[in-house]
Amino acid sequence: MVNKRFPLALAITSVVLAIATSVSLIFLPGVFSPAADNSPTPTQTPAPKPVVDQLARIFNPSKISQTFIELPKKTIAKLNSYDNDKYVAAKFRMVYDGTPTTQINVGIRIKGTTTRSRLNNLYYRPSFKIKFDWGVGYENQALFGKRSLTFNAFAQDNSRMHETYSYMAYRAMDVPAPRTGYTTITFEGKTLPDKPKRGLYLVLESQDDEFFADHFKDVTQHVYENNRELSDFDKAKIGGDVEVNTYFKVKQGWKASPNRDDLRALMRVSNLKGAKFWDGLEPVVDRERLVMLWAVDNFTGNWDTYSGPLRNNFTFRSNSLGKFTFVPWGTDQSFGENLFNDPGARVRYPGYVLPVKTHDDFFITVDKPWTAYPGSYTFAYSAGIRDMAKMEGYQISRGKLFQRCLYYAPCATLYFQSLQKVTEWAKVQDYPAQMTQTKALIQKHLSPYQQREADRTINWVPKQIKRIDAALKRNCKFDDLGTVTTCKDTNGKW
After folding, report:
1. Chosen domain end from 163, 185, 208
2. Under a CB-based contact definition with an 8 Å cutoff, are residues 148 and 87 in contact?
3. In the predicted model, what is the mean pLDDT of residues 142-153?
4. Contact (CB, 8 A) for 404 and 277
5. Same structural domain for residues 197 and 329?
6. Which residues of 151-170 are buried (b: 16+ CB within 10 A; e: fewer)?
7. Is there a domain that residue 111 lies in?
8. What residues contact residue 105 under an 8 Å CB cut-off, 6+ apart?
């Protein structure tokens, strides 16, 4: 049965309530009869029942739900091919917080770019997207108002905690960010008899129409995402008025506004400097949220984002006036996992020698417009550097907007104030203690190595807080309460 945008579990409840009501009418007629003395029967207004947020029960990282997927043979063949980026038929149900949904027909596809895999690659598990309004006859189907869900396989996060805690920080700082939960995936039916249990996944709120409607009250003009690494707001990378074939793909809004005028306005501001840049930024970007997003990027050590050296993994949404808000996405490369030891480098660069260190702490700079990152050797090697110490510390320029900010004291001041705010919030929240609770929840799903990586992530946070406190002292002045008041720019000007 097609769910016309009604919650699946609530549909079950409604049927049960309807039956219960009918039974009471049949077997308890006296309840609705007048009193013997014909006087009016006093009535009581029933107390309103609390509204249960079913999505909050799914996006609840303190519990683990169960997801069950049944795949037809044709779907299995498609998902086992490398041409698996289109939705194909499947059946889907969940058990969340002890509550089951009904089984429904959905679309499923494998997601990811560098992490894309095939269905039966058990050593590099694929991530999935489930779409509820996926085809003809299902246009209005949803799960508690959501048209889709994303299931991430932690391909680049051995701790299984990076996205949960980074998105938590963005949301706490009023930056729109997805909600997360934990789930296990089991393939049902006779079509996948081998390895039906695929282990722990992150169930992630998709950045779909409902996500943007929930977070913004004005009209969405465009939603863009970057298609490649090293994306920035340059004329050549923005391209002409096309939907996809540039560094920036239009995810929403192309039919209503088949142009990139809003993106070009942002590009023009990105080429300004100093006060002109700062004043010009306000009409085209939600400045305070953008600067706070950079602060959370740096607090969480997220190098695979726009303010990082790769200028990658970011979504940004404009309203009808062309004003953008940036939204974080793909934050698994955070909390300092090094990953410097890359066997793939031996293929790309003949003669490359792997370093001794692997998977230990890594820290990006938090107060410079450039930084190294765990794969800096790829840029350093291309630049002719062969000294491993120099390769690892090879500095790469970060996103142009972020650079402009650090070179202008008023913007740099807001950035450091935002960095202090998120750091103080993490202290109050006792981030390491929360992470320790999460590790205890998911520990039975972790290998010994993954448990050690979870511990490394937990221990990384207080080290990062100390680094940020030191950076604030290097760059800023404080009032008597210890709050940042003014900061210098990268050139040392206040």
Report:
1. 208
2. no
3. 94
4. yes
5. no
6. bbbbbbbbbbbbbbbbbbbb
7. yes
8. 89, 90, 91, 92, 138
User: Is 242 found in the same domain as 134?
Assistant: no
d(CA 315, CA 325): 9
Residue 154 has a pLDDT of 93
Question: Taking Cα atoms as reference points, which of 8, 96, 17 lies closest to residue 49?
Answer: 17
Strands 64-70 and 180-188: parallel
User: What is the C-alpha radius of gyration for the chain, rounded to an integer number of angstroms?
Assistant: 26
pLDDT in tens, 368-415: 999 999 888 888 888 988 887 788 789 999 999 999 999 999 999 999
CA distances to 69, 70, 72, 80, 193 from 190, rounded to whole Å, are 12, 9, 9, 17, 6
Name the strand (E) or helix (H) holding 150.
Answer: strand 148-152
Domain assignment present for residue 1? The answer is no
The reply to whether 119 and 221 lie within a common domain is no
Residue 134 DSSP class: -
What token pair was written down for 325?
Answer: 């808000």
Backbone angles phi, psi at 176, to 5 degrees: -55, 125
Same domain assignment for residues 144 and 66: yes
Q: Is residue 377 part of a domain?
A: no
Give the three-class secondary structure for 237: helix
Q: Can you give the pLDDT at residue 489?
A: 97
Short-list 464, 471, 463, 469, CA closest to 488: 471
End-to-end CA distance of the chain: 64
* Cβ contacts of 275-282, under 8 Å, gap ≥ 24: 275/408, 275/410, 277/404, 277/408, 277/411, 278/408, 278/410, 278/411, 281/401
SS3 content of the chain, % helix, strand, coil (to 5): 35, 20, 45
Task: Say if CB 152 and CB 332 are below 8 A apart.
Answer: yes
**Residue 414 falls inside a structural domain:** yes
List the domain range (segments joined by +) for residue 99.
55-153+177-208
Residue 346 backbone phi and psi in degrees, to 5: -65, -30
How many domains does the chain fold into?
A: 2
DSSP code for 333:
S
Contacts for 95 with CB less than 8 Å, ≥ 6 apart: 65, 66, 68, 101
**What are the pLDDT digits (tens) for 75-107?**
999 998 877 788 999 999 999 999 999 999 999
Cα-based distances in Å from 127 to 143, 230, 309, 312: 19, 24, 25, 19
For residue 238, which of 316, 310, 309 has the smallest C-alpha distance? 316
Q: Are residues 225 and 201 in the same domain?
A: no
Structure token pair of residue 196: 């039906």
325 and 420 co-located in one domain: yes
Q: How far apart are CA 425 and CA 476, in angstroms?
A: 19
% residues pLDDT > 70 (the chain): 83
295 and 443 both lie in a single domain: yes
Does 323 share its domain with 181?
no
